[in-house]
Design a protein that fits this description.
By secondary structure, the protein is α+β, with helices and mostly antiparallel strands. The protein has one domain: 3-Layer(aba) Sandwich (Rossmann fold). It is 39% helix and 15% strand. The strands form 2 sheets. Strands 1-4 form a two-stranded parallel ribbon. A two-stranded antiparallel ribbon has the order 2-3. Strand 2 and strand 3 (34-36) form a beta hairpin. It is globular, with a radius of gyration of 14 Å.
Length: 80
């Protein structure tokens, strides 16, 4: 599952993403039945999440969970 621009997620969605990453379960839209998944999750953003965390707009626990497997890809203009 690829999620782009996670820096723009609202707090409610951040909680759901954190639960999906930690517990590997989720609720389908309109359902009260908990579903399990073994999906691998890849996220991307062009924002500096540590700054978003510092100003309180990004959850600290989600930030540290995602940071464990961080890959930084410099812009193409910096690689030429």
């Amino acid at each position: 599952l690829f999620l782009d621009e996670i820096g723009d997620l609202n707090e409610r969605s951040q909680v759901k993403l954190l639960r999906l990453i930690q517990e590997k379960d989720y609720y389908q839209l309109g359902s009260d039945v908990c579903m399990k998944t073994d999906a691998r999750i890849v996220v991307a953003t062009n924002q500096v999440l540590s700054d978003r965390m510092a100003d309180g707009s990004f959850r600290k626990d989600l930030y540290y969970r995602l940071k464990t497997h961080q890959i930084c890809i410099p812009p193409l203009r910096d690689r030429l």
